[in-house]
Amino acid sequence: MAEVKAQLGEADKGLSNELEQFVSLRGDKWDSFHFRKGSDVLVRYNLLQQVEGNEEVEWAGVTMHSLVRWRAKQNNPGQPWHLWYKVFVLAACCQLICEDGTEFRQHLVVHLQDVEVSFAGSKDAERFESFVGETLGRIYDDEGRWEDAEELFVRVMETRKSVLGEEHPDTLTSMANLASTYADQGRWKEAEELEVQVMETSKRVLGEEHPSTLLSMHNLAFTQESQGRWEDAIQLMQDCVHQRQKILGFDHPDTESSSSALTQWRALWQQDTQTAN
């Protein structure tokens, strides 16, 4: 919740203390046991409705009964319900991104379609809506709903280019997110084109040793590897590994991730070369 409120700026209409109590965490972690027990009771009394799931889960989640939502709005018509709903969903999304829980994501994704993302308004409002779009896009992307993710990432990227400029770090992040979604769909050329832009701009603006620059090198190398361009991918990942070892240290998770990929690619490339000969 703190991350979401920090992004609100002038859009903050004042989330009541009473409402904030409902998003408190136990030991800084989501308590799935209490969530399920509480949901079961509300479903039993028809205050919540189960939403149909898929082959993996019996039901994907719950949503508030339409009559309950209508009654709440009638009771306090002057309250900013849409903003409060957006803030609550965003808080859940941010927690999910930190914890990466597949089951919780399946519960949450059914609520995202009701979150309105509007890029009209003041610069503060546009920045907040960009944060909304980026956060929701990441959830859609993780859930494999790439068209939904792509639509949001494109809107975020264009808004940030207009508001922040094409070389702003947040703009580069939005470009990298869009490139990742292209890659997830096998659209390698589109992904690579964006990733090259991100890497070159990051080198120029942030510096060749900046962690964000190294991440862009890591991502581009994976896109090259996915196209079977072993030499390009290995060379770029090798440069990334050397820089990460120097800047982050040998034991850093990012360094280990790049090193592991490099070792695996070298072995596969050698195997392919031997097979071809």
From TrEMBL:
Alphabetical list of SUPFAM superfamilies matching this protein: TPR-like (SSF48452)
Pfam family, one: TPR_10
Signal peptide (residue range): none
PANTHER family: AAA+ ATPASE DOMAIN-CONTAINING PROTEIN-RELATED (PTHR46082:SF11), ATP/GTP-BINDING PROTEIN-RELATED (PTHR46082)
Protein name (database record): Tpr domain protein
The species this protein was found in: Colletotrichum incanum
